[in-house]
């Protein structure tokens, strides 16, 4: 996925950190292969996506985000983030073995 940077403000920063996911880990997840899926449960009408991936330390993260155009740049705006639960990690590794690198560690 191509984007030029991240769009952070107090609102989405606080929401993402509710689940103790540091901003740096969210950003670093997008430096690695991720699975991008549409987010069907969005009542606001804004086009949102779900990203599933891992940190460099192999910890699974689930991020809901949208893309925003700002002055000719496309910015990724995280809406919420949390670490994946054990069963989610197992499903991720089974469903996306070509992306998941936890099995190799």
Could you give the topology of this structure?
Elements: E1 5-6, H1 10-17, H2 23-29, E2 35-38, E3 49-54, E4 60-70, E5 73-83, H3 86-95
Parallel strand pairs: 1-5
Antiparallel strand pairs: 2-3, 3-4, 4-5
Outline the structure in words:
The chain is of the alpha+beta class. The chain contains three helices and five strands. It has a five-stranded mixed sheet. It has helices spanning 10-17, 23-29, 86-95; strands spanning 5-6, 35-38, 49-54, 60-70, 73-83. The longest helix has 10 residues, at 86-95. The mean pLDDT is 87.
> How is the biggest beta sheet arranged?
5 strands, mixed
Please state the overall shape, judged from the principal axes of the Cα atoms.
globular
Q: Give the class from helix and strand content and strand pairing.
A: alpha+beta
What are the secondary-structure elements, in order, as H or E? EHHEEEEH
Tell me, rounded to a whole number, the average pLDDT: 87
| Strands, count | 5
Total of helices: 3
Strand content: 25-35%
What is the number of domains?
A: 1
- In which range does the helix fraction lie? 10-25%
Query: Cα distance, first to last residue?
Result: 25 Å
Low-pLDDT parts are none
Cα-atom Rg, whole angstroms?
14 Å
Q: What is the spatial order of strands in the main beta sheet? A: 1-5-4-3-2
